[in-house]
Amino acid sequence: MHCNSLTSDIPNNRKVNKSLVEKAGESVQWTVTEIQSLLDMPFNDLIFQAQQVHRRHHDANAVQLSTLISVKTGGCSEDCGYCPQAARYHTGVENQDMLSIDSVVTAAAAAKAQGATRFCMGAAWRGPKQRDMEKVTQMISAVKALGMETCATLGMLKPEQARQLGEVGLDYYNHNLDTSPDYYEEIITTRNYQDRLDTLREVRNAGINVCCGGIVGMGETREARAGLIAQLANLDPYPNSVPVNHLVQVEGTPLYGTAVLDPLEFVRTIAAARITMPKAMVRLSAGRREMSEAVQALCFLAGANSIFYGDKLLTTGNPDVQQDKALLDKLGMQSLSASS
Ligand code: SF4
């Protein structure tokens, strides 16, 4: 077959989708329908387009490594339906007071020795109390002194708290939108979508980079996944770092027993995030341990370029560090340096 006839044979809907992909890189708003059209593309076309956008803005064989530590575990007053740390669910997670600064610094130094460039500190709070802020800011300063990038996820922030974090030079603040506005109330009722957007605004106002993503596989529709990506991509500016989590089902949480999402649908979500937020670091986050190496490789092909590294996430498991090194070697991928 002559190659011209290949071009003229492209169905109209695929030509439309191609022009959507051409939006990538422009400073534009995305509609949910447009993002759903991306998610609806033939899989190979979607991955090809995502990979092209990826290569325009990133080293396609590099991955940023972050390590996450829980600095205060369990006993949270919120009702996030996926979370084993909510006090109201019986999941076997033991409550733990805030870790000492020394033990956090020791963990950060160990993560650095393993190749992590960013150290994320998470606390199971609705938001920090003012009395927690002193210890948290000292922790951030101590980890920064090791030459690592710092990230914190502490729940909702008041303007003054965001300012305090900005003053000690916190590099990133993670606060996820979790899902689309329409599906949100199925998952969380103790805070609303606007609360989340307000915290993100305070983080930006304090000059801290925004790390913001969501969770898929919570029983949402493809349209809801498109709705989440639209919210993220339309933040002004879109987040520098976009964690895409695959629900880890924990017994005792309301979402335990949810129908498991097809892994290829997860890969599609990564691709849509890459196309609509071309310069962001798209992070393959929770749920990676449950993914085969082949699915992880497809996620990298679809534009994921950041992973959590270390044997544990906040309370759920993560692939073993040696296993990760072996996978990256197999794929010929290298880790990115700290400023990337
Ligand atoms: S996700 Fe965060 S805010 Fe929600 S219950 Fe868990 S620790 Fe609390």
List the helices and strands and how they pair.
Elements: H1 3-8, H2 12-21, H3 32-40, H4 43-57, E1 62-72, H5 101-113, E2 118-123, H6 130-144, E3 149-153, H7 159-167, E4 172-174, H8 193-205, E5 209-211, E6 214-216, H9 222-233, E7 241-246, H10 263-276, E8 281-284, H11 293-301, E9 306-308, H12 321-331, E10 334-335
Parallel strand pairs: 1-2, 1-9, 1-10, 2-3, 3-4, 4-5, 6-7, 7-8, 8-9
The site of iron/sulfur cluster has 8 residues, from loops.
EC number: 2.8.1.6
Catalytic activity: (4R,5S)-dethiobiotin + (sulfur carrier)-SH + 2 reduced [2Fe-2S]-[ferredoxin] + 2 S-adenosyl-L-methionine = (sulfur carrier)-H + biotin + 2 5'-deoxyadenosine + 2 L-methionine + 2 oxidized [2Fe-2S]-[ferredoxin]
Binding site for [2Fe-2S] cluster: 120, 151, 211, 283
Task: Provide a descriptive summary of the structure in words.
[2Fe-2S] cluster binds at residues 120, 151, 211, 283. Catalyzes the conversion of dethiobiotin (DTB) to biotin by the insertion of a sulfur atom into dethiobiotin via a radical-based mechanism. InterPro entries: Aldolase_TIM, BATS_dom, Biotin_synth/BioAB, Biotin_synthase, Elp3/MiaA/NifB-like_rSAM, rSAM, rSAM_sf. By secondary structure, the protein is of the alpha/beta class. It is built from twelve helices and ten strands. The protein has helices at residues 3-8, 12-21, 32-40, 43-57, 101-113, 130-144, 159-167, 193-205, 222-233, 263-276, 293-301, 321-331; strands at 62-72, 118-123, 149-153, 172-174, 209-211, 214-216, 241-246, 281-284, 306-308, 334-335. Strands 1, 2, 3, 4, 5, 6, 7, 8, 9 and 10 form a ten-stranded parallel sheet that branches. Strand 2 (118-123), helix 6 (130-144) and strand 3 form a beta-alpha-beta unit. Helix 4 (43-57) crosses helix 10 (263-276), helix 7 runs parallel beside helix 8 (193-205) and helix 10 runs parallel beside helix 11 (293-301). Bound molecules: iron/sulfur cluster (SF4).
